[in-house]
TrEMBL record:
<dbReference type="InterPro" id="IPR018691">
    <property type="entry name" value="DUF2188"/>
</dbReference>
<protein>
    <submittedName>
        <fullName>DUF2188 domain-containing protein</fullName>
    </submittedName>
</protein>
<feature type="region of interest" description="Disordered">
    <location>
        <begin position="1"/>
        <end position="36"/>
    </location>
</feature>
<dbReference type="Pfam" id="PF09954">
    <property type="entry name" value="DUF2188"/>
</dbReference>
Length: 74
């Protein structure tokens, strides 16, 4: 089953955005990456999604699970 994911990524108009996969627009846009991470982490925890944080080049540098993580079962 595919996971719902929120991503912290550069925004096309500057700053950083919090965006859910499949969404057409950013949930939030912040001036700094740290601010976007704080907002994104709260949203991800509330909605039980995966949170992926990207660099300026789009590479994922960190991923945190805030939902039912299937990797821990066995």
């Amino acid at each position: 089953m595919a996971r719902d994911i929120h991503r912290i990524m550069p925004h096309k108009d500057g700053g950083w955005q919090v965006k859910r996969d499949g969404g057409k627009r950013a949930s939030h846009v912040a001036d700094t990456k740290a601010e976007a991470e704080k907002i994104g982490r709260e949203i991800s925890r509330n909605q039980g999604t995966e949170l992926q944080i990207q660099n300026l080049d789009g590479k994922i540098i960190r991923s945190d699970s805030h939902g039912n993580d299937p990797r821990g079962r066995g």
